[in-house]
Structures are given as C-alpha cells and as structure tokens.
Design a protein that fits this description.
Low-confidence stretches: 1-56
Strand order of the largest sheet: 2-3-1-5-4-6
Largest sheet: 6 strands, mixed
Structural class: alpha+beta
Helix content: 40-55%
Number of strands: 6
C-alpha cells in the first residue's frame, strides 16, 4: 500500500476527523524514547469512487513521490513529508530539495531552531488545509502560538500558509475589535517584531489592531520602540484620512495578505 505521510503527531483523532472518508490511520507506539508516529495510508484503489473522492484534490498528485525527513527542534523530532508536496508550497524546501545542496541527496533537513509544535501546524495545514488552533482559557486564540506559526510560515516561504494564518488573526481581531481581552498582548508584539522584517504584513496588522481599538493599553517599555513609533504615525494617518479609528478590515485588510505565485 502506498504511503501518504508518516509524521509525529499526537492528535490522531483530529486528523482522522479532518480526513474522514478517504484515509485510514494507524497510531503506532514503541517502547523507546521516540515519540508516537502516525502513519497514514491512501485509500484502497479497489474501493468505490466515493471512498477515494478526496483524491480529486490537486494535491493528491504529489502524494506518490519520495518522502523527505525533517528534524525539528533541539530534541530533533522527525516529520516525514512528501517531497513534491512540501516543495510546492514552500520555497525554502524547494530550494533545499531541488538545488545542489546536501539535503537534496540525503532527503533530510534539520530545523533545530524551530518548535516541533509550531511545525506540526504547518504539517496539518499541508495535508488538511487546517490545523488545530491553540486556545487560551478564555477561549480566544493563543496569540503567541499563532504568531509563532506565522513567523514559521514566513521563514519557510509559504505565502499560502501565511495568508491562512493571517486570515485567522484578522477574523479573531474583527470579532474582538471593541474588547480589551482576547487580542495580542505585549508578548505577542515582541514575537512579531523580533522575528520579522520592517515590511512584514504581520507588523502592519498588529499596529492597526492597536490603532483600531481604543480600549487596548500597552506599556511602552514592554514593546519595541519601532512598534510605538509606527503606532503613533499610523494613528495620526488614520485620524487624518478616516476621521478616527475604524474596524480592522474596513481600514486596510487587503494589505495584510501576501501575493501567492503561480505554481
């Protein structure tokens, strides 16, 4: 039976629900220190068309390719992915796997500075077009986790994934635009400014969130000076152009999303 993917994944029931009807799942455990590994197999070609309908998805043509192994984090958790699929959606992996680098021959790539939980979000999205959104006790998005995910998407050169994460953030900010709780705090702002360039749409988004919400307060000493300066400039511009703050998407929503090149 052909292999679709085999990667470390502790939320097997979630993936099973997301892919119900076209794959079947084995959750394997061993007695060593290795984490559990999830093996996912393709639908049986001898079954009826209804069982295999999901393979009309354009991504399915990339599932019959050689795998690559990605080692993530200092403890080196392993993710096994389809090479052509991940290269299609990530310019980082495309350069590593298709160029004249050692990784292209070994089919192994190391990402020691990234968190396996964050990379797992990318893997979930790659195969299911969704991922399990980390929540706080109040039920809102865990902004530090979601911003870490956006930073990873930017690092991997995966604009389609970046836009998906941004859409989640914009939707959350729209729902809570007149609230004080449930929006990015100082820690989230620091994550963004420490890991993105000045032209990043993520920075623009965070500045607008604070400019559009007059209930949010943030100590100046807790965030980068760049953020404070950009917020002051942006608030002045908003007041001049629009007569004051407005809801986020009414102001500059289209500016938060990246162009996705044709594959």
């Amino acid at each position: 039976m052909p292999l679709v993917c085999s990667h470390q994944f502790d939320r097997a029931p979630y993936l099973k629900r997301a892919c119900s009807g076209w794959i079947f799942i084995w959750h394997l455990s061993d007695t060593s220190n290795k984490a559990n590994v999830l093996d996912v197999g393709v639908a049986d070609p001898n079954r009826s068309e209804s069982h295999n309908s999901a393979f009309s998805d354009p991504r399915s043509k990339f599932l019959y390719t050689d795998p690559i192994i990605v080692h993530v984090g200092h403890v080196s958790k392993r993710f096994m992915l389809h090479k052509n699929l991940v290269c299609r959606y990530s310019s980082f992996f495309k350069a590593a796997c298709k160029g004249g680098f050692r990784e292209a021959e070994s089919n192994e790539i190391k990402l020691p500075d990234d968190e396996s939980e964050t990379f797992d979000n990318f893997v979930q999205w790659l195969y299911t077009r969704d991922f399990e959104h980390q929540k706080t006790e109040s039920g809102g998005l865990d902004w530090v986790c979601i911003l870490d995910t956006y930073v990873l998407a930017d690092k991997l050169g995966a604009p389609k994934f970046s836009n998906y994460v941004m859409n989640l953030m914009v939707h959350e900010a729209e729902m809570r635009w007149d609230q004080e709780l449930g929006l990015p705090d100082a820690a989230a702002v620091c994550v963004a400014y420490e890991n993105t360039p000045g032209s990043s749409p993520l920075r623009r988004f965070l500045v607008d969130v604070y400019c559009c919400n007059n209930k949010l307060e943030i100590p100046k000493h807790a965030v980068p000076d760049e953020f404070v300066m950009e917020m002051a400039f942006n608030f002045k511009r908003m007041s001049a152009e629009l007569g004051g703050p407005r809801r986020l998407m009414s102001y500059d929503g289209r500016g938060y999303f990246q162009d996705v090149p044709e594959c």
